[in-house]
Every structure is written in structure tokens, then in C-alpha cells.
Amino acid sequence: MKIYQAISEREAKTFTTEQLRENFLIESIFKTNEVHFVYTHYDRVMVGGATPTTVALSLQTYDNLKSDYFLERREIGIINVGGNGTIEVDGEGFNLSKLDALYIGKGVKEVVFKSDDAGSPAQFFLLSAPAHQNYPTRKMSKEEASPVSLGTVETANERTIYKYIHRDGIQSCQVVMGLTVLKTGSVWNTMPAHVHDRRMEAYLYFDLNPEHRVFHFMGQPQETRHMLVANHQAILSPPWSIHSGAGTSNYSFIWAMAGENLDFTDMDFVKISDLK
To answer: Record-annotated residues binding Zn(2+) (predicted)?
Structure first.
């Protein structure tokens, strides 16, 4: 399991493109018939994916967690971005269609991932953080996720936002998760940009045609940098960094966070005219 060290804004200012990608880009999230994780030192968050096809996949613990089972001291949020699948939680099955979400709390011992059709497998995006108390397992469909339409044609950011795990949705200790779907002809996300010093964030870009890319912008508002990101690649965003992007086509992305609070609106906005 690759470990991503926490990088300060002072270091990031000096990075080459290769160093930026090495420290902030997760190039491969979904691996066939594998539960795949990376470990980050941003709030001890783990980011990963599970892609079962012909076999069921169990969520196993890792040596560096020093735990008897994965969720002994952790919670996990899951969003399916692939075909229909099932997640068994201590023997109870939850069916997840594309864009459905599932939260599993601390103390659950057995989690098993399955796909309904090996030819169109589920692709479960996973974000796990340390947890201090138990919250119940809960599923939420995209229809239940209070979809909100925002943006305009003029600013090329017509989009629908789905909020799953947050203070007014599924309850958790510190995980916050949702996703944004950009409409055809719209390419900008999270602009005006913002930071939130109270929590880290991870983005998963998906539903992006293989030949297209997203220009993901990061860095301090007056010291911006960018990386080119492909479909099913993820970005780690430190608390000091903006996290915004523009694609060569429309796309969707999951926003997943952990840290100090569960308020979706906890954002310190930066004027477009102040970005450099």
C-alpha cells in the first residue's frame, strides 16, 4: 500500500510536474478483482477502490493499521461509479446502482464487495478515516441525495450536486462525501475556488472519455499549480490548497473529505480576480 506523506505549501511551491504527480495524484484507483488502497498522512485518510468481477472481494486489514479488522477503529464511505453491485455488511446485503452511496461505521467486522454482472462490474470508490464512535450502516440512492442544479451556460459550469454523507445527510464521525455531474458543454468545477483549513479533500474524476483530460488546479490561491488528470484518477488536496478544474469535455467527480467538521458549506472562498 503506497503511503502519501503530508506536503506543506512551502515544499509544493518548488515541485516539478513529476513531483506534483508523485505526491498528489493517485493514478490507479480501480484494479480488477482487487481492493486497492493508498494511505495518506492527511487526517490519516485512506483512499481506494474495489472492482469485483468474477469473485467476491473482502475488505481486509493492513499491517500498518495494527488492527484486527479494517473497521476496528475506522469508518468508510463508498460510492459506486460502475455497474450494479452488492455490498454485504456483517451478512446484510445492500444493492448499489451507479451513483448510490453506502456508509459503514466503526466496529463492522466483515465487508464483502460483489458485482451483479462481471461484464459490467461495480466500481466502488472508497474513503476511510479514523472514527471515535459508532454510526449505523446506511445506504443512500442518488435520488435521495438532495440533488441541486447549479451554474450557468455562460460560465460553463451547469452541474448537479449530490450530497450523501454530511451533517444533514448520512451521519458519520468525520467523513463527508458527495459528487458533482457536469452537463454537456460545461467543464468548470469549483470556481470560484476555495480552501478549507479544517479538512483535507480527495477528488475522483470519472465518466470522462479516455481521450480527454481535466486540468486540475491546486496550490495556494496566489501560487497555483496544475496537473492533467485522466478518467478514474484521483487527486489528494491538502487543507491549504484550492481544488478546482476544467476539462476538455464534461465529466463527473466525487468529492470526499475528512477532518474537523461535517458542514458541507465550510469553505473559504477566493475571488477569481485574486487567483494567481
So the answer is: 194, 196, 201, 243
- How far is the C-alpha of 33 from the C-alpha of 55, rounded, in Å? 7
- 159 contacts 153 by C-beta, under 8 angstroms: no
Provide the grid cell at 6.
Answer: 503530508
Domain that holds residue 21: 3-274
* Tens digit of each residue's pLDDT (9 = 90 or more) over 115-166: 999 999 999 999 999 999 999 999 999 999 989 999 999 999 999 999 999 9
- The x, y and z cell numbers of residue 91, run together, are 451478512
User: How many Å apart are CA 151 and CA 137, to the nearest integer?
Assistant: 33
For residue 230, the domain's CATH number is 2.60.120.10
Give the total number of structural domains in the chain: 1
Rounded to whole angstroms, how far apart are CA atoms 14 and 254? 28
pTM: 0.97
pLDDT in tens, 186-201: 999 999 999 999 999 9
Q: Which residues are annotated as a binding site for Zn(2+)?
A: 194, 196, 201, 243
Quote the CA–CA distance of 6 and 246 in Å, as a whole number. Answer: 25
Number of H-type helices and E-type strands within the chain: 2, 24
C-alpha–C-alpha distance, residues 30 and 36, integer Å: 7
Tell whether the model's pLDDT for residue 261 goes beyond 90.
no
What gap in Å lies between CA 83 and CA 72, rounded to an integer?
Answer: 29
